[in-house]
């Protein structure tokens, strides 16, 4: 699908039906983008943590092994990665498990991925390590403990936007401007019952006119299902993404193409559309099924606590000065608060609040 076809289809639909919800447009744009196979890496549109340094995936693999030991070393574990990109994180995590062969032998690896193009890339990276690919978590086996990992998975899920006008919340939609181009418009008044209570109509600290609030129903449904499954199956979920720890107002919808911000409604289907994850909303969704949320913890704090710098020092041994400098640069990018260390956060789900997870102590 070309971006012209997508643009034309959306404009025709708006002309026939009226302005569309933001979440509908975001879902269609990202479906087109990921169907093409997103350009991940330095020469593409964006770079994720596993592509920056192997330390990231290795730390996650070893973290999962420690959690497995804490949970009594179950003989079979369903390991799932959601939205694995090129498969780099999973490859690094599995390689790091060489010192823990019993855990590696217990793993049955599954991947949740909707893009046929990315599935082929993942097959090339992971080979026969993967038991099966799935479109959704719903078809993943549920007869063993679930260990789930998702890095920059939630941020691409479609959001519903509200805009404050005349003292009320209205749905924000995408319509057409005077020239027939896609444009944001204020839609009908909406009860906004899915917003945090402190943001709803009548709240004492109500938002001012012009404020924008975002809700991601798909993310909430995903973590609710994750919590329900972990309570039923046992296991752990680890989600790492950029976002904010507390629900609030503010537009975070953005488009990135060629490592630069791009106008959100221009060339839909050719740029990566994302929003910041609302971790407080996820915690509430997890708790609804009796599961426990841990974090969020800043990525830099979490990686440091798990020994990322020590692992990087091991990799630097025996390398050239250039290799040494590159390893240091890569790990610094992951943990430095001014780079990815503060904006990105780690969030985990277990079956009970009594579970104490490495890197989440005291959270």
Name its key features.
363 residues, alpha/beta, Rossmann fold, 8-stranded mixed beta sheet, 5-stranded antiparallel beta sheet, 16 strands, globular
Q: How does this model look, in words?
A:
- The chain has 363 residues and is an alpha/beta fold.
- The protein has 2 domains: 3-35 and 159-214, no CATH class; 40-155 and 216-243 and 264-350, Rossmann fold, CATH 3.40.50.150.
- It has 13 helices and 16 strands.
- The protein has helices at 3-17, 22-36, 49-52, 54-70, 88-95, 101-106, 116-126, 217-233, 279-287, 299-305, 308-316, 321-335, 337-341, and strands spanning 20-21, 77-82, 107-112, 130-134, 146-151, 160-165, 168-176, 182-189, 212-215, 235-244, 254-257, 260-262, 272-274, 277-278, 292-298, 344-350.
- Strands 2, 3, 4, 5, 10, 14, 15 and 16 form an 8-stranded mixed sheet that branches. Strands 1, 6, 7, 8 and 9 form a 5-stranded antiparallel sheet that branches.
- Helix 4 (54-70) packs across helix 5, helix 8 packs across helix 9 (279-287) and helix 11 runs antiparallel to helix 12 (321-335).
- Keywords: Methyltransferase, Transferase.
């Amino acid at each position: 699908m070309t971006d012209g076809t997508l643009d034309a289809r959306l404009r025709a639909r708006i002309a026939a039906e009226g302005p569309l919800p933001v979440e509908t447009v975001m879902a269609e744009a990202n479906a087109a983008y990921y169907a093409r196979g997103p350009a991940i890496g330095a020469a593409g549109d964006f770079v994720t943590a596993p592509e920056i340094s192997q330390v990231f995936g290795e730390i996650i693999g070893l973290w999962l092994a420690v959690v497995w030991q804490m949970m009594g070393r179950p003989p079979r574990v369903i390991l799932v990665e959601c939205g694995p990109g090129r498969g780099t994180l999973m490859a690094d995590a599995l390689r790091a498990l060489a010192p823990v062969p019993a855990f590696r032998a217990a793993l049955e690896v599954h991947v949740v991925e909707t893009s046929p193009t990315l599935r082929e890339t993942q097959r090339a990276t992971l080979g026969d390590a993967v038991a099966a690919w799935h479109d959704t978590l719903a078809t993943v086996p549920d007869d063993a403990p679930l260990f789930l990992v998702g890095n920059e998975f939630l941020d691409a899920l479609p959001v519903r936007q509200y805009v404050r006008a005349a003292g009320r919340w209205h749905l924000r939609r995408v319509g057409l401007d005077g020239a027939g181009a896609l444009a944001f418009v204020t839609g009908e008044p909406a009860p906004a019952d899915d917003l945090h209570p402190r943001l709803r109509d009548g709240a004492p600290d109500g938002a001012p006119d012009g404020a924008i609030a975002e809700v991601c129903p798909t993310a909430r449904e995903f973590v609710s299902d994750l919590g329900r499954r972990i309570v039923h199956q046992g296991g752990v979920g680890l989600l790492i993404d950029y976002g904010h720890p507390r629900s609030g107002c503010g537009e975070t919808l953005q488009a990135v193409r060629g490592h630069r911000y791009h106008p959100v409604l221009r060339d839909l289907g050719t740029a990566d559309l994302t929003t910041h994850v609302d971790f407080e909303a996820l915690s509430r969704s997890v708790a609804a099924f009796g599961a426990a949320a841990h974090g969020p913890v800043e990525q830099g704090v979490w990686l440091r606590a798990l020994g990322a710098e020590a692992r990087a020092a091991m990799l630097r041994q025996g390398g050239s000065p250039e290799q040494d400098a590159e390893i240091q640069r890569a790990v610094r990018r992951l943990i430095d608060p001014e780079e990815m260390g503060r904006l990105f956060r780690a969030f985990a789900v277990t079956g009970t609040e009594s579970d104490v997870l490495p890197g989440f102590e005291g959270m």
